[in-house]
Amino acid sequence: MRTFFRPFSKLVSATEKCLNFAGVWLIIALILSVVADIAYRNVFGRSIAGVLELDELFLVGIVFLGVAYTQSLKGHIGMELLTNRLKGKI
Predict the structure, then answer these.
(1) Which long-range contacts (CB under 8 A, 24 or more apart) does 81-89 make?
(2) How far apart are the first and last CA of the chain?
(3) Alpha-helical regions (H) of 1-90
(4) Which one, 4, 51, 56, 66, has the greatest CB density within 10 A?
(5) pLDDT band, residue 68 (cuts 50/70/90)
(6) What is the pLDDT of residues 13-31, one digit of tens each?
(7) How far apart are CA 11 and CA 73, in angstroms?
(8) How does pLDDT run across 29-62, given as a tens digit for each residue?
(9) How far is residue 90's CA from residue 86's CA, in Å, rounded to a whole number?
(10) 38 or 69, which is more confident?
(11) Rounded to two decimals, what is the model's pTM?
(12) Maximum Cα–Cα distance across the chain
């Protein structure tokens, strides 16, 4: 039975890697759009129309494109900025 699902497993793995790669490009696009918006605001005194909404969509895409890859690695996404600085077990 395992050999029956092996091609499907390879397809799912390739799809996860492609989605992860797309998420990386969304991070780059997010950074560039924020930098462009800041530069435009400093030069012209106003923001580029629609950049805030576009950045919100980028954030949603980044999160959901990375979930499948993280799940395949049996990983966990967590915020440890505060908990690493606390003493003792949490």
Answers:
(1) none
(2) 43
(3) 2-44, 51-72
(4) 66
(5) confident
(6) 888 888 889 999 999 999 9
(7) 16
(8) 999 999 999 999 999 999 999 999 999 999 999 9
(9) 8
(10) 38
(11) 0.73
(12) 64
Task: Look at residue 71 in the predicted model and tell me its pLDDT.
Answer: 79
What residue spans define the domains of the chain? 2-72
Tokens at residue 12, please? 């799912």
3-state percent helix, strand, coil for the chain, nearest multiple of 5: 70, 0, 30
Burial class of residue 9 (count of CB atoms within 10 Å of its CB; 0-12, 13-18, 19+): exposed
Which whole-number Å values give the CA distances from 24 to 33, 36, 68, 82, in the listed order?
14, 19, 14, 25
47: left (phi over 0), alpha (psi -120 to 50) or beta: beta
**83 vs 18: CA distance, rounded Å:** 32
Which residue, chain included where needed, has tokens 């990386």? Answer: 24
Residue 58, amino acid: F
DSSP code, position 45: S
